[in-house]
Amino acid sequence: MTARDDILNKLRSRGRVPETPPPVWQSRRRFESLAARFAESLPKVKGEVIRVESPDGALETLDTLFNDLGAQRIVANGDLPTLDWAARWPDREWHLVGQSDGDLRAFCAAADVGLSGAEAALAETGSIVVAAGPTKSRLATLLPPVHIALVPESILMPDIFTWTAARRNETPANIAIISGPSKTGDIEQVLAVGVHGPRRFIVILYGE
Amino acid sequence: MSGVTFKQFKFDAHKAIADPVLQGAVDGATRTFRTARAAALADVPDVDELRDHFKAIRSATLSRLADHLETFERQAAAAGAHVHWAQDGAAANRIVVEIARQHGAQMVVKSKSMATEETHLNKALIEAGITPVETDLGEWIIQLAGEPPSHIVGPALHKTRQQVAELFSREVGRPLDPDDIPALTAEARRVLREKFLTADIGISGANLAVAETGSIVLVTNEGNGRLVTSAPPAHIAVVGIEKICPTWDDAAVWLSLLGRSATGQPLSIYTNTITGPARAADLDGPREMHIILMDNGRSGLIGTGYEEVLQCIRCGACLNACPVYQEVGGHSYGNAYSGPIGAVLIPLLFGLESNEALPHASSLCGACLEVCPARIDLPRMLLDLRADEVDQHILSREEHLIESGIAWLLGQRRLFNFLADMGRIFQKPLVDQDRLLAVPPEFNPAGERRLPTLAERSFHDLWNNLREEDDPAAPVYGWLHLAAVVLALLFILRLLKGGKTS
Lengths: 208, 502
Description:
Chain A is of the alpha/beta class. Chain A is built from six helices and twelve strands. Chain A has a single domain (31-206), classed as 3-Layer(aba) Sandwich (Rossmann fold), CATH 3.40.50.10420.
C-alpha cells in the first residue's frame, strides 16, 4: 500500500462523524472612508502612504521620490498605468518587466527601486495585494531596498474577508499580501526593518 | 530523540530558572507578545464570535480531513505541483533528500518551518552532503549556535544581543557591535541575500494549505518566505496534514487570527500564497514545486479525545501566557514544540512514556485555553494524559506504591487518626518560627517548597465539638465529615505530586 492510501485509509477508518462547516464569515468592517483607514493603518507598521488627487499627482510624487532616493535603477511591473516610463524619466535606467531585454533577476538584485501596481488594497490592515504574471515579477517587489506601489483608490476594499469573497476563479502561481516593510524583532524584540525584503514600503494612493 | 523524563525535565528546568539572563529574556519577550496580542484582538469586531467560528471550521475540517486532502492533492497537481505523501518524519526527509539529489543540490535555503524542525530535516540534509541555510533571522541565529528553537514564533528569543553579535562575528570573520541591532540585521541581510540567489532549492513549511485551489500559504515578517519560494529554481514545502483549510473564505478567518495571536499584528507583513510552480509565461519563480503531505502521528489522533490538538495553528500564544513556560523556557521541553501545546503535542506525536514529565509541566491555570485562537482545551488534555500515564503504568513503581498506600490508609479511620496524633507529637522539633515544617531538603517530598504543619486540633475533632453543641442530624454529618477529610487529603496529595515537577 502506498503512503497516500495508508494515510487516507487511517483517517477514514477512525469513524469520525462528519460535521457541517459554519456559514461563511462575512466582513463586519464598515469604514466611513476606505482611503482614510488605509492611510491610517499602514504607517502604524512603518509603511508610508502618500495621498494624491489624481494619476498626474502620483507621477509628480514619483518625481520627488526618485530624486530624494537618488534612484538610478528602477524595475517596474506591468500592472502600472500605461505610460512611457523610460521617456518620462530618461536619465534613469529602467527595466520594464516583460518588455525590457536583459536579466530581470540581476537587475532586481541591483535596483534602487521596485515599482508596482496592485490587484487590490485592504483598508483595515493597510495592505496591498500583488500577483505574479507574465509582466509581474515577484523579485521586483522583493529584492530592491525600496518598494513603491501606485494604488488607485478604486481598488480599495474593507478587509481580507471582502478580498477572499471577491476572489476570481483563476489563481496565479503567486499572490502576496504586503502589509508593510520587511521587518524583524528576532534580536531582543528590537524592531529592525529591511531584514530580507524592502526597507521602505511606500504606497502612493491616488484618486481618479 | 531522548525524550523528557521527570529527571531530565527537572534538571533542565532548574538550569533555566537559575539563569538570570534567560529569565530576563523570556520574561521580556513573552510580555511583549502578550501585550501586543491583547491590543490586536481588542480591535477586532466580534472577536469572540470569530474565534468560535474558527473553532467550528477547524473541527469540521478535521472531521472530513481525508476528503479535503484529496481535494488539495487534485488542485495542487492541476496547478502543476508534485504532491508526495509521508507517513512519518523520516519518510518526509527521504523525499526531500531524493529531490535535492535529483537536482544535484549543494545548498538549500529554508524559511522557518516547525514541520521540518519536527523531522530534523537539517540533520538529514547534512548527512546527505547538502548544506541547509536557515533564513529566518531567529532560525539562522540558532542554527549558527547549534541549538533547537526555544519558542514557536521567536525561535531565538533566549539569545541576547551580545550572543548574537558573537555568533555573527564568527560567521563574517570580523567583530560586530552588539549594541547596533540594525547593523547586525544588515549583516544578516548581506550574507543571506547571497544564499537566496545561489541556492539550488528553497524549502518551506506551510502555515496553511488551501484545498479548493491547492495553494500553500506562508506568513512571514522578514520576507524570507517570499524569497525562499521565489528565487531558487525549485521549491519544496513540507506540510503537516492538519494544516488543511478547505476554502479561501476559511483562510481569511485563519489569517486574521494568526497574526494577531502570534505577534499582535492584524496581518503579518507578508502573506505569501503559492499555487503550483511559476507558470510558463512568468519571468521568475520556481520552475518546479513539490508538496510533501506529512502524517507523522497525526492521523491516529482523529476521532480520539486528543483530536482537538490538531486544530493548533502554531501561533505561540499559549507559550506567552503560560507561567510554567515563562520559568522553564523552551528548551526544557526537549523539542521544537514547547509550552502548553508542546506539553500535549510531544507525548502524542513522539510517545507518552519517553516524555512522561511533560503532562505535568503545567499548573493547570487555564491561561493557555483562554488565549488560544481555536480555544483548544489544553488543560483538559494535560489531565487526560496524566490519567493515561496511570492507566498505562508509566509512573514509577515508588509512586504507585505510595499512592496505593495512601488510598488504603484513607479507608482506615482509626489508624489514620492514630498516625495523625503521632505526627502532631513528632513534628514538634521540626516546626519553625513560621509554623512550617523545616524538613531537611533530601527528605522533603515537595522539593524546595516548605510544607505546612499538622494543625493542633484536627478538623475531625473540631467538627465533633460542633456536633455536640447542636446536633439535629448527626448521622449525615458523619458522612460529610469523611468526604471533607478525603477531599482535603487528595488536595494535599496533589500539592505533593505537583512539587515533583516544578
